[in-house]
Design brief:
The protein is mainly α and 308 residues long. Helices cover 76% and strands 3% of the residues. The protein is globular, with a radius of gyration of 21 Å. The relative contact order is 0.15.
Length: 308
């Protein structure tokens, strides 16, 4: 039997396997990263400083923006610095930490989006009891549950992935440590680990998605009973931003974490990762500000207070 040496470090392939495209992709993703952080920090600042936005919906939005800042900062800075310095190496411990943080933040976002759907459902379906149910204590509890569930889910995936032995090729065909490209490098049969990971991801994603769909079924049923045009438009504008976020998040994330590692394509994996780990956090501030009069007013007020 060959003498197999345990891998102590991995090499990230970067944004593109084509060296000529690395510089262009690095400059592009640097601009996107700065725009993402600035946009989400602006949302957090606007919600924090404007008393009119101290409502459950914007409380969840502020935490969603905080998660987006942390999520994009978990992957992009390392990849950008590694590309610019020409050092693609990442230690086994750092890789595991990056995977843990990324999965934790992604799953926390999933739970937060579900909480936001529940909030919008109560606001439209049960407006008379909305204030009593969605108290500050309830909002804090939902956010705490989202973070706690994210930590547990991430701990499972990290343990499930890194309990595999790595002793052969160490080049990760990705720009950060993700589950599927890592499992492809294992020097043991990863079928059981892959099945366990897919089952856990499927249960979490489908449960959150089902609860979100159920919330919107209640919303649609209530909206159809509104005979006022103004009332219909108000209900639509209240939920349209959140619905856009749901479609963007589930449409990109589910394709990455509910497919078997055997059918994983490095190019498709990178493209999907750009959507769910980069574009989703980038577009969230735009989605929630362009169609929201209260947010527009708060942002205008915030910008007027900034000294130039």
């Amino acid at each position: 039997m060959a003498n197999l040496t345990a891998v102590t470090a991995f090499l990230l392939q970067g944004f593109s396997p084509v060296p000529e495209l690395q510089l262009l992709s690095t400059a592009t993703f640097l601009l996107i990263y700065l725009a993402t952080v600035l946009g989400n920090i602006t949302i957090v600042a606007a919600v924090t400083h404007d008393a009119c936005l101290h409502t459950p919906m914007y409380f969840f939005l502020k935490h969603l923006s905080l998660v987006d800042i942390c999520s994009v900062s978990t992957t992009l800075p390392w990849a950008l610095v590694a590309t610019m310095l020409g050092s693609r190496e990442i230690s086994l411990c750092a890789c595991a930490s990056q995977l843990f943080a990324f999965v934790c933040l992604g799953s926390t976002e999933c739970f937060l989006i579900t909480s936001m759907a529940f909030d919008r459902c109560l606001a439209i379906y049960k407006p008379l009891v909305y204030t009593a149910i969605m108290s500050p204590q309830t909002c804090v509890s939902l956010v705490a549950v989202a973070w706690g569930s994210g930590l547990l889910f991430s701990a499972f995936h990290t343990a499930n992935t890194f309990s595999l032995p790595f002793c052969g090729p160490n080049v990760i065909e990705h720009f950060f440590c993700d589950i599927s490209p890592l499992m492809r490098l294992a020097c043991a049969n990863a079928d059981a680990h892959e099945a366990a990971g897919s089952t856990a991801s499927g249960c979490i994603i489908m449960s959150c998605f089902a609860l979100t769909v159920l919330s919107y079924v209640c919303i649609v049923a209530t909206v159809f009973q509104i005979h006022s045009t103004a009332g219909l438009w108000k209900a639509f504008s209240t939920c349209s931003s959140h619905l856009a976020t749901i479609l963007l998040f589930y449409g990109t994330g589910s394709s990455a974490y509910m497919q078997p590692a055997a059918s994983y394509s490095p190019m498709q994996g990178r493209v999907a990762a750009v959507f769910y780990s980069v574009l989703t956090p980038t577009l969230n501030p735009l989605i929630y500000s362009l169609r929201n009069k209260d947010m527009k007013r708060a942002l205008k007020k915030l910008y007027l207070q900034v000294p130039f």
